[in-house]
Amino acid sequence: MKISARNRLKGTIIEVTKGATTAHVRIDVGGSIVTASITNESVDELQLKVGNTAYAVVKASDVMVAID
């Protein structure tokens, strides 16, 4: 499958935690952890497991900057 998004971060799944309907998937991307909230159904369809290689695909229409 190809995807048009350019914000793809390749990493290793370090944790998959399923809830009632939503799962949290944590991906180690070069020492930084990215957490995605996806459906349990998607976890099952993609067969996501700890140790698998995966991409965090980021789609953002805005990026904000803040200071204290």
Brief overview, please?
One of its GO terms (biological process) is molybdate ion transport. By secondary structure, the protein is mainly beta. The protein is built from one helix and four strands.
Structural overview:
By secondary structure, the protein is mainly β. The chain has a single domain (8-57), classed as OB fold (Dihydrolipoamide Acetyltransferase, E2P), CATH 2.40.50. Helix content is 10%, strand content 47%. It contains 1 helix and 4 strands. It has one helix at 40-46, and strands at residues 8-18, 22-29, 32-39, 53-57. A 4-stranded antiparallel beta sheet has the order 3-2-1-4. The longest helix is centred in the middle third of the chain and has 7 residues, at 40-46. The relative contact order is 0.31.
Write the layout of secondary structure elements.
Elements: E1 8-18, E2 22-29, E3 32-39, H1 40-46, E4 53-57
Antiparallel strand pairs: 1-2, 1-4, 2-3
Keywords: Molybdenum
Pfam family, one: TOBE
Protein name: Molybdopterin-binding protein
Q: Could you list some keywords that capture this structure?
A:
molybdenum; Molybdopterin-binding protein; mainly beta; globular; single chain; OB fold (Dihydrolipoamide Acetyltransferase, E2P); Mop_domain; Mo/tungstate-bd_C_term_dom; 4-stranded antiparallel β-sheet; 47% strand
Average of pLDDT: 92
What is the string of SSEs from the N terminus onward? EEEHE
Strand order of the largest sheet: 3-2-1-4
According to CATH, what is the topology?
OB fold (Dihydrolipoamide Acetyltransferase, E2P)
As for the number of domains, it is 1
The total strand number stands at 4
**Biggest sheet character:** 4 strands, antiparallel
Radius of gyration: 13 Å
State the distance separating the first and last CA atoms.
42 Å
Low-confidence stretches: none
Task: Report the CATH superfamily.
Answer: RNA polymerase II/Efflux pump adaptor protein, barrel-sandwich hybrid domain
CATH architecture: Beta Barrel
Strand content: over 45%
CATH class: Mainly Beta
Domain Mop: 2-67
GO biological process, one term: molybdate ion transport
Keywords: Molybdenum
InterPro entries: Mo/tungstate-bd_C_term_dom, Mop_domain, Transp-assoc_OB_typ1
